[in-house]
Amino acid sequence: MTFPLHGRTILVAGASSGIGAGFSRAIAKAGGSVVLGARRLERTQVLAADIEAEGGKALAVPLDVTEQASVIGAFDAAEERFGLVHGVVANAGIGTGGHATDVPAEGLSGVLDTNLLGSYLVAREGARRMIASGSRERGDGRVVLIGSITAQQIGTGDAMYAATKAGLAHLGRQLAREWVRQGINVNTLQPGWIPTEINTEWFASERGQADIQRLHRRRLLDADSLDAMLLYLLSDASRQVTGSTFTIDDGQSL
Fold first, then answer.
1. Torsion-angle region of residue 237: left (phi > 0), alpha (psi -120 to 50) or beta?
2. Which family does it belong to (predicted)?
3. What is the SS3 assignment for 69?
4. Where are the beta strands (DSSP E) in 172-215?
5. At what angle do helices 18-29 and 41-53 cross, to 10 degrees?
6. For the chain, what percent of residues have pLDDT higher than 90?
7. Of 99, 122, 152, 181, which is most buried, counting CB atoms within 10 Å of its CB?
8. Strand, helix or coil for residue 198
């Protein structure tokens, strides 16, 4: 089963690397026009060029999800190029490692602002425009928040990150309830551990390899393991799915 996105425009926040870049490629391959939002504009410009070279439609826009003016500017640029943005993928996120007694307050603020406030601002701006354009009648508004299995796990060294991801899952339910009559579906996707440029060095280390061996299936998720669920949640097929949280982790959190 495939989930085509022809005629739809999707804005991906946090598209410069990792699963955000992978999501962007998947959306374009499904026929959607993808708007690549990130602070590292030079990276998204290269990605947009690659997508268009493969026959897709892509636009790189500067986006700092912690700044409302930047969020508004990203949506303005998206609409100028492609018209209405039908879907939002709130994927921007950062973490700061260390024991709760040691992490500087500045680091905590950055994680909270990017992961939780940033997702709120991006989802809200998208919803404002969808509602204004008639999403209630069309029923095609889609918001997908990208959480983490740390939202439901207890660990050491990532307390603020995990707390923001738990908050993100509840934010998804809150926004789904608020917009349930506005033709906008809001769902949260919680991935397990996936190899990215942020954690590649760790998982290649002796301690990282030990962490992998403690997983039930002794492996990390494939980089594209979330794509099918993401495309489903952005497509017409999910028109009756809202306020839900989906965990895809290969059993890592069991």
1. alpha
2. Belongs to the short-chain dehydrogenases/reductases (SDR) family.
3. helix
4. 184-191
5. 30
6. 81
7. 122
8. coil
